[in-house]
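Write out the bound-state structure for flavin-adenine dinucleotide.
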Amino acid sequence: MQASSNKKIVVIGAGFAGLASACSLAQKGFQVTLLEKNAETGGRGRAFKHQGYSFDMGPSWYWMPEVFEQFFNRFGKKVSDYYTLQRLDPSYRVFFSDGLPLDVPAAYDEFKKMLETMEPGAGPKLDSFMAEAKVKYDVSMADFVWKPSLSILEFAQPRLLLESFRLHLFSGFSDHAKKFFKNPKIIQLLEFPILFLGAKPEKTPAMYSMMNYADIMLGTWYPKGGMCKIAEAMTSLAKELGVRIVTSSQVNTIDVSQNEAHAISFDGKTERFDAVVAAADYQHVESKLLEKEHRSYTDDYWERRVMSPSSLLFYIGVNRKVSGIQHHNLFFDEPFDRHAREIYDSPSWPVNPLFYLCCTSATDPSVAPEGKENLFILIPVATGLTSSESERMRYLKMCLERVKKHTGEDIEADIEYVRSYAHEEFIHDYNAFKGNAYGLANTLMQTAIMKPRMKSKKVKNLFFTGQLTVPGPGVPPSIISGQIVADEVEKYFHNR
Ligand SMILES: Cc1cc2nc3c(=O)[nH]c(=O)nc-3n(C[C@H](O)[C@H](O)[C@H](O)COP(=O)(O)OP(=O)(O)OC[C@H]3O[C@@H](n4cnc5c(N)ncnc54)[C@H](O)[C@@H]3O)c2cc1C
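---
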């Protein structure tokens, strides 16, 4: 008989990590219950509907498609069994301060030609940059991201130590990019995916040029119907595998005795389990669901963490079509240095932030009523801030002014629906520490074994997964995190 067959596991939180771990544990034969505080699964990757609009609430960039494919393949399925993917071309449009928008083409040769026109000689340099980025991507994806990172010994193999030098773990991304290119627009283009990682490019290890490989070579994709299709697919799979999913169920406590978690309280009842996988925000689980003596990390530890930014978001319905924009649009028309300082060094509301505008309905008419447009604006901002609706609306006006300046489109009067979303909502909806959007920043000091551990130091059968532990923030890493933790749970029962 399998060690897993009579064991009951509870997974707290049905975001990508919770869904991935629930599916993987169920496949291993565990009896899995997945508890989610919100009415829907998907966590930060949910959608909401309003009068014919379907707004994805969080992620909008579908990168690293092979991670999704490998996940479904693990269960004998394919992505195409659940949703249809389309590669975007151009991948995205960038607006710079000189007013000349730049479209990043999907085809590598076209991208190379474009860089060559911006900086003579940049084409061959791009080949070298990308060749290095590919090595980093391949090594990281084959080895590093799949490590539970519970011990330095996992990395103490001669081959991996050698690889860590090839990965440029110890140099900053900015200096790395500047070794290849001089044109500030090219540098800004290459630094853009790094912003996803939630730290200044100079503080992000050069290893993350692997993200440029993901961006330029592997492409930007879109699941028809929206990013919410991913969580819907994973939820269907979980049900097919027999996972018991209970939504609108907030877990209130994890009961521990003799260093073992044995029960969970939710909805005014208590249920016994053999192990707990916490897929909700790590800090929330530690500081709100566990008694002090069972926590691995102190409040001070969390205060000292460098968080990825939060976001001020706007979900906007426009009663007509909008021209001059693509599916993904980056407004890099203001200097990033000041905005970065306002995010990381002296957390404050930014004066002239960069922002991102998504127009899903440019690709997919199903997400907006006929003849209308579904827009989403994201302004990265420091964690721990507060805002009133009127302050938020001032930022919306600022963004719309800049859209008008660059595209000639004056859409303010044609907005028929707008909903803002920021720290307060992240805390209310996801119990997010300081209202974070994407977890911890990927600085060198918060990489691999330096991240909050996947296994509790104090409670033997308590595990953690999701964007605040390994491998880190983003949809693909969260899906990987869920699979790694399932293997750790299996090992735990096997070794007992
Ligand atoms: C605005 C935004 C834009 C983003 N853009 C991208 C992008 O374009 N591409 C990309 O790859 N990534 C993007 N990300 C990051 C990505 O969405 C996240 O890294 C990922 O969704 C995190 O998944 P998770 O499972 O770790 O956490 P979550 O999605 O937060 O899941 C945790 C779940 O736990 C639940 N929960 C919390 N407390 C409890 C409790 N006590 N009891 C029960 N349930 C509880 C929460 O409700 C939630 O559903 C974006 C994130 C945001 C917010």
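---
The chain has a mean pLDDT of 94.
Residues 12-18, 35-38, 43-45, 58-61, 250-251, 279-281, 284, 311, 313, 378, 430-431, 437-438, 466-467, 473-475, 478 surround flavin-adenine dinucleotide (CB under 6 Å).
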